[in-house]
Design goal:
The structure is a single chain. The protein is α/β, with parallel strands linked by helices. The chain has one domain: Dihydropteroate synthase-like (TIM Barrel, Alpha-Beta Barrel). Helix content is about 45%, strand content about 15%. It has nine helices and eight strands. The protein has an eight-stranded parallel barrel, surrounded by six helices. Strand 5, helix 5 and strand 6 form a beta-alpha-beta unit. Helix 1 crosses helix 2 and helix 8 crosses helix 9.
């Protein structure tokens, strides 16, 4: 089964649960519940990267995430990832007990992002994004979305290794919903297994995203997109996803258990 990365947004404005876990104690309670529900990794974010989101200062982002990471680490040995574009925030988070840097900018946001990643020596999620959060959905265009993003991620792997990162510390993410139309997202999902050819673990993050609401127009509220999220997670499990990043950990874990049981029985019956 893919590893399950549970999402904790310590933000007031994330698209799905903005404001629900802005208080550190409430966020801690939620993180511990995700761990109990089956999360292998807990992903902590202090800045929303939804379309149209405004940038948060380094100081404010650190204030949001570091106390939470310290509290989670005091209560659990679970893997913790820090969802940030900023090397200063990543450094503070790793010092506080985080294990992974999840960077939606693929280490391009700051001039010293690559250098910082090498110094930290932790796994880093390298994600493709078609621009910054404020503008990425303004008419995104590709010659061929899958081929273009394969080329981008391949180039970023090369840049990371040349800078001194170990290949085994590179995790890839095609960036579903980040500067892509519905058709782009569907193309990336349908050909998701192709990204395994790059030789690095692949993370898939599409939980509760707007593409589900565009397929099922009744799912206006992100909270009503659990079924679609599970469909994508299960499809990803069969098509090259080593990690799935989700809000609904309990439901995803259960779906993976049932899938594994069926596959195990299939091996016996055939």
């Amino acid at each position: 089964m893919p590893m399950i990365m549970g999402i904790v947004n310590a933000t007031p404005d994330s698209f799905s649960d903005g404001g629900r876990f802005f208080d550190t104690e409430i966020a801690l309670e939620h993180a511990l519940k995700l761990i109990k529900d089956g999360a292998d990794i807990v992903d902590i974010g202090g800045e929303s990267t939804r379309p149209g989101a405004k940038e948060v200062s380094v100081e404010e982002e650190i204030k949001r995430v570091v106390p939470l990471i310290e509290k989670i680490r005091a209560n659990s040995d679970v893997l913790i990832s820090i969802d940030t574009r900023k090397p200063e925030v990543a450094t503070a988070a790793i010092k506080a007990g985080a294990n992974i840097w999840n960077d939606v900018s693929a280490l391009t946001f700051s001039d010293n992002s690559l250098e910082t990643a090498v110094k930290l020596g932790v796994p880093v999620v390298i994600m493709h994004s078609g621009g910054d959060p404020e503008t990425m959905q303004n008419n995104p265009a590709y010659k061929d979305v899958c081929t273009d993003i394969l080329a981008f991620l391949s180039a970023r792997i090369g840049a990371c290794i040349q800078a001194g990162m170990k290949r085994e510390n590179i995790i890839l993410d095609v960036g579903i919903g980040f500067g892509k139309t519905l058709e782009h997202n569907l193309s990336l999902l349908s050909r998701h297994s192709r990204f395994q050819a790059l030789g690095c673990p692949v993370l898939l993050g599409a939980s509760r995203k707007s593409l589900i609401g565009k397929i099922d127009e009744s799912a206006v509220d992100p909270l009503s997109r659990v079924g679609g999220s599970l469909a994508i997670a299960l499809f990803g499990a069969d098509n090259g996803a080593d990690i799935v990043r989700v809000h609904d950990v309990y439901e995803t874990h259960q779906a993976f258990l049932v899938r594994a049981a069926i596959e195990a029985r299939k091996a016996i019956d055939y």
